[in-house]
From TrEMBL:
It comes from the Eukaryota. It is a multi-pass membrane protein. One of its GO terms (biological process) is lipid storage. Its main location: endoplasmic reticulum. It is found in: Endoplasmic reticulum membrane. The keyword Hydrolase applies. It comes from Tortispora caseinolytica NRRL Y-17796. One of its GO terms (cellular component) is endoplasmic reticulum membrane. GO terms for molecular function: coenzyme A diphosphatase activity. This is Phosphatidic acid phosphatase type 2/haloperoxidase domain-containing protein. Keywords: Endoplasmic reticulum, Hydrolase, Lipid metabolism, Membrane, Transmembrane, Transmembrane helix. The chain crosses the membrane at residues 21-40, 52-71, 91-109, 195-217, 224-240.
Length: 241
């Protein structure tokens, strides 16, 4: 199938093209509503040490990269070669997605964007024994400006607005994988292709963990803001069709 055909299919699919954004939004709304109504009981997934959180979400971009590599392999098999416009465009979108993930969760000229939002809304790293006191870096003595450093110093992120990094990651990753799959995917191929089944397994786990995150963690606004920042990536599919 030519890249021109793929582009035409991508632009003509309508709502199906944005199914992942719709699914993520519905999941967040349902999970948040159940949480606020107190209709959620403790479960295995309420524990941050559950196996999917530790070995999937905590290294979520690695799993996203693996799933994306499987999608590229599928494109190569279908087109008979790697060097096609379709594959190069997909890799460009993956690079943009990785860049946005990195800026939001890892580094943005210092603390990542999510930490800058937290600090800018009055948040600080507090000592776990004296939560009203700011915790300083044990070596440099400076104020801690990173959530990762705060956790490693046994501190607590306090008071500010903390956009849900889990909701952000799972929303953006699901969006990337779905958009790269759906233009040429058929139900028959999904049933017969091991590659597609593998990618869909990762996608379903992401959606499941998105639900458990919204059921047990963060405030309403923190979940909504995590969703918002995750959905920003969708603009890539308008700019780089």
């Amino acid at each position: 199938m030519s890249s021109k055909t793929t582009t035409r299919m991508r632009s003509s699919l309508g709502p199906r093209q944005f199914a992942s954004e719709i699914i993520a939004t519905v999941i967040v709304l349902i999970g948040t509503t159940l949480c606020e109504l107190g209709a959620v009981q403790d479960s295995y997934y309420a524990n941050k040490k559950n196996i999917l959180n530790v070995y999937v979400v905590k290294i979520g971009w690695l799993w996203t990269t693996i799933a994306f590599a499987l999608i590229v392999l599928r494109q190569t098999q279908r087109n008979g070669k790697f060097a096609t416009k379709e594959t190069y465009t997909s890799i460009l979108r993956y690079a943009l997605a990785t860049g946005w993930w990195y800026l939001f969760t890892q580094w943005f000229f210092g603390p990542p964007l999510m930490d800058r939002v937290f600090l800018g809304t009055g948040g600080y790293c507090a000592h776990y024994l004296t939560p009203d006191q700011t915790l300083f870096h044990p070596v440099s003595g400076e104020i801690i400006l990173s959530s990762a450093v705060c956790r490693s110093s046994k501190g607590l992120w306090r008071n500010g607005h903390d956009p849900s990094g889990h909701v952000f990651l799972l929303t953006q990753a699901g969006t990337l994988l779905w958009h790269e799959l759906q233009p040429t995917m058929t139900l028959a191929e999904l049933k017969s292709s091991t590659l597609l089944k593998s990618v869909f397994t990762i996608l379903i786990v992401f959606w499941w963990m998105l639900l458990t995150t919204t059921l047990y963690y963060h405030t309403v606004l923190e979940k909504i803001s995590g969703l918002f920042f995750g959905l920003i990536f969708s603009s890539v599919y308008v700019l780089v069709p």
